[in-house]
Amino acid sequence: MVQIRLPIAVLSTVLMLGGCSFSTDALWPSLSGDAPSSAAPTVASASTVVPIKPSSGEASGQPLVNPGTGQAPPRLGSTNFQVEPPRAGQSTGTFVGNKVAQLRDDLTRLQASINKENADLQAVRQQTIANAQGYHSQVAGIRSRLQLGTTPGNPQLVSAWNQSQIELEKINTDIGRMNALSNRVAADAAMSSYLLEATRAAFGLSGAIDEDHRQLEVLEDDVNRTVVLIDRLLTELSDDIRRQSNYVSTERNDLNTLALAIKNGEFFGPSLASTAYTHANSRPTVGGISRPSARSDSRRPLVVIRFDRPDVNYQQALYTAVNRALQRQPDASFDLVSVSTLSGGTAQSSLNANSARRNAQSVLRALVDMGLPPSRVSLSATTVASGGNEVRLYIR
Predict the structure, then answer these.
(1) Do the Cβ atoms of 62 and 76 come closer than 8 Å?
(2) In the structure, what pLDDT confidence band is assigned to residue 356 with cuts at 50, 70 and 90?
(3) What pTM value is reported for the model?
(4) CATH fit for domain 292-395, picks 2.60.120.10, 3.30.1330.60, 3.20.20.70, 3.40.30.10
């Protein structure tokens, strides 16, 4: 009997692809019961093994994130900055020769400092990768539970959320270490510029022999290489700091949205601030000018929330509507209007107005928790002759 052996990764992929269908316009994932395709892979013999090479992310050791569990952390630089020690030279006994030896010693000390900073950089990068993996492991677990469904305010998810915040703060601490390292590298950059100028100035000193000038030329080349290496180190470190800082800021917004999802026991999605930012940066341009989004003059409300019973569960529908609006119009602002009824006399009308305003403020807090900046929402109130209290959200 012939045994068919497939790697677990290939078998899992075949099983997953057989039972899923995708639609770009669907709000929820479509789960079909169709049979898997008959065009299944075949294996010629028992000795056949399908090789699967590691992805570029796996090979680099960078954190990997499942596409539905949030944004992947930014890729850190991977350069290992190794300096070439200065080339040795014979003492000539002249004043200029002694100056050359002194400058060479200064370069050696500078390069020792660079080696130390490079070692610190590689260590902080590895620590950042480990912390990012720990953070995304926690967040992925929370999102998976929410997607499957769970109880509102599940204490296990609250505990996992607290741990996620701790892990994210570890990444923020790593950014602080990178900033301190950047300051040290900047000091070395100033020292390297001084050495280069001092080496060039030594050519104008009197009392030199030909060997002194030959050694000065060699030293100038060595200093130049060090200057270039420090410049590359400082640039790559600055890029790492910028990308990681933006990443932590975005993840903090997503954690706030995730906290609201845990409170309600249902998964919303990424922060609305992230949605608006992403789509604003991806809009098509014509001649270098952003194509303006079409604005509607209609006052048809985007969302109407009727508070006709206690504990109205509106958050998921509100998030979906606002998220779609921001995808169509990334720079959209919103008018949040509390609507109260005049029926029931003056005293009852006043009570209705107060209740409607409290409901509108509750909806505003929910939008802020979802990541929508408060500056993009205006709050107002109005009355109607009859009906019930409600809150309406309009695109401005």
Answers:
(1) yes
(2) confident
(3) 0.56
(4) 3.30.1330.60
